[in-house]
Amino acid sequence: HLSPRLNAVADFVPLNARLADIGSDHAYLPVNLLLNDKISHAIVGEVAKGPLDNAHHELKKRHLLERADVRLASGLAAINDTDNVDTVTIAGMGGILISNILNAGKQQEKTFKTLVLQPNTDEQIVRRWLTTQHYQIIDETIVQEESHFYEIIAAVVGEQQLSDLDLIFGPYLRVEKTATFVAKWQKESERIALIFKQLQAAGKSDTDTYRQWQLRYNQIQAVIS
Ligand code: SAM
């Protein structure tokens, strides 16, 4: 069974995909998708030896090594042209690292039809990368695990214009405005309210920093109200 976070990633993987899961660690995601016959083949990429061994162990335990290739490589370098990969998942990393991995792949002229990304942070950087690199977001979801909120973004090759609000809050998430989405941004508002207090106590209410936090606070309130 997958965690709610990885389950949401799995939900966005197209049926019968030839998948590459980059930074797979225990390979829980490809194992689940292969066991459920949702995908036909998986490339399991890992940059570190320990996680690579974890992935190999899990796949072997489930007798899935015939339908998966485990590769030690950084980012999309794990994928060869002959793999015919059409879908790439990258989950559980910071948004900047995800963008860097995608950028490095672009330089090797590696393009994949579908990307399913789950940045732990800096979601707006990932969305900006997608729209500037000729991907269009086709769906998004947000899940909560304990006190953490995770956004999952599905994109396919295509063109899309995103506003600043779309980049920050997500073009689908900000319209759907689920209870989980509101809770995430409510939590961020509370964090900013504490920052206001600290700045006020330090006599820094009349500063650009203060005004920038105020803008962000007001923007969040407008989106979730
Ligand atoms: N994807 C799994 C998940 O979402 O549960 C595991 C996430 S784990 C926190 C991040 C993994 O990414 C680590 O195992 C790490 O070794 C791997 N990683 C970090 N940078 C990478 C890179 N450039 N290429 C491949 N894997 C990378």
Automatic annotation (TrEMBL):
Name the UniProt key words of this record, in alphabetical order: Methyltransferase, Transferase
Q: Which InterPro entries match?
A: SAM-dependent_MTases_sf, TrmK
Which PANTHER family does this entry report, sorted A to Z? TRNA (ADENINE(22)-N(1))-METHYLTRANSFERASE (PTHR38451:SF1)
The residue range of the signal peptide is none
Name of the molecule in the record: SAM-dependent methyltransferase
Per the record, the GO terms for biological process are: methylation
An example Gene Ontology molecular-function term: tRNA (adenine(22)-N1)-methyltransferase activity
